[in-house]
């Protein structure tokens, strides 16, 4: 059976505390197979017999809202898509793995939206950005904590939600898949 990773946003940050055991238990109740978490920030590996649809992402987000009162965006990606998130990221190998991120997006934003993001952020920081397939590649040169390139800023310009993971975490997730 193919293996997938569900990337949950807004977990164990900003007051949204949830144990990974509670998350695993909730997904197992929905008959999701071979559930395993990687790193305590909302990365869930699972088996699924067919290509997950947007409906499955919506189900996972619904579980978060209904059972845990957490508004979470969920991106589901296959092993090949996680590998591409690392291999296609033009900043991997050049920036620090902890500062180089892939932000998984709900949909593919139009090039015009990406261009608007670049224009709106010009002169605000040293971050480097590149658009991928349903993802945004970011090198937070000086780290995420002090960056003015926030998830909200990105989402408003691109017109879709997302959740980011650094290259180090993606490498660990891929190895587990």
UniProtKB/TrEMBL annotation:
It comes from Novosphingobium organovorum. SUPFAM superfamilies: SP0830-like. Transmembrane segments: none annotated. PANTHER family: BLL4334 PROTEIN, DUF1697 DOMAIN-CONTAINING PROTEIN. This is DUF1697 domain-containing protein. InterPro entries: DUF1697 (IPR012545).
């Amino acid at each position: 059976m193919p293996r997938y990773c569900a990337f949950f946003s807004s977990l164990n940050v900003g007051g949204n505390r949830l144990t990974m055991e509670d998350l695993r238990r909730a997904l197992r109740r929905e008959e999701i197979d071979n559930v395993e978490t990687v790193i305590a920030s909302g990365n869930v590996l699972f088996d699924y017999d067919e290509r997950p649809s947007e409906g499955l992402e919506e189900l996972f987000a619904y579980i978060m809202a209904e059972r845990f009162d957490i508004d979470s965006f969920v991106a589901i990606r296959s092993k090949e898509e996680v590998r591409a998130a690392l291999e296609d990221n033009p900043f991997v190998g050049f920036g620090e793995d902890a500062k180089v991120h892939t932000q998984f997006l709900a949909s593919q934003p139009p090039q015009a939206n990406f261009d608007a993001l670049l224009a709106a952020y010009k002169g605000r920081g040293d971050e480097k950005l590149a658009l991928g397939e349903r993802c945004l590649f970011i090198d937070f040169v000086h780290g995420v904590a002090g960056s003015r390139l926030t998830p909200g800023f990105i989402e408003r310009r691109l017109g879709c939600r997302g959740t980011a993971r650094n290259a180090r975490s993606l490498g660990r997730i891929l190895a587990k898949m």
